[in-house]
Amino acid sequence: MEINEYEIDGLIQTLKESGIKGIMKYSDVLVLNHMCERGWIPSERDGIIKTLKENTEMDYKDITNLLQRYNEWKQYLPSYSLGLNQKLDSVNKSYNSIVPFRWIGEGGDKKLIGFVKDENGTSVFDGSGNHLIKICGVDENYSINWGEYVQLTSPQRRYIVDEVKNLKGKIW
């Protein structure tokens, strides 16, 4: 199974929120939770065991140990809403994104930013709300025309500028 980049972004955000100690001690539990929440593997015990036996090199003892730890921590792990799951799936599929939508930023300042090819060149959107909001446009000369409606943090602006440079570099 090929894993899309935006899936990794969601997992990385969860890992960041768990801190270094959480990452080091529970990364396998966090990854299992992500796979169950996204529907990649069944969420019931027998389905998890069967899937992990068929698709990993884990033995039964390792799988049951992971499940025990997963069950202990399940109440503390993030639960992905149907809306979040649908947003992650649909935003990248619905739009002809040339740079997939990714979560950029921290806490309440996070934005789901993606680059979409359109009739005017390329538009950069924030997909974190109910509707896409245009952040800026990128013309054929790779000049960025910033919009007035979306307030961005410095790392978000830097991300957009870096991605525009990457797009420009692909042409040359």
Report the radius of gyration as a whole number of Å. Answer: 19 Å
Portion of residues in beta strands equals 15-25%
Task: Please count the beta strands (DSSP E, at least 2 residues each).
Answer: 5
Helical content class: 40-55%
How many DSSP H or I helices? 5
Helical/strand content category = alpha+beta
Strand order of the biggest β-sheet = 1-2-3-4-5
The topology string of helices and strands comes to: HHHHEEEEEH
Low-confidence stretches: none
Major sheet, described briefly? 5 strands, antiparallel
Number of domains: 2
Report how far apart the termini are. Answer: 32 Å
Look at the structure and give the mean pLDDT. Answer: 79
Shape: elongated
Describe this structure in words.
It is a single chain. The chain has 172 residues and is of the alpha+beta class. It has two domains: 5-80, no CATH class; 95-171, no CATH class. Helices cover 52% and strands 18% of the residues. The protein contains five helices and five strands, in the order ααααβββββα. A five-stranded antiparallel sheet has the order 1-2-3-4-5, with helices on both faces. The longest helix has 33 residues, at 5-37. The protein starts with a helix and ends with a helix. The model has no long low-confidence stretch (mean pLDDT 79).
Structure described in brief:
This protein has 172 residues and is an alpha+beta fold. Helix content is 52%, strand content 18%.
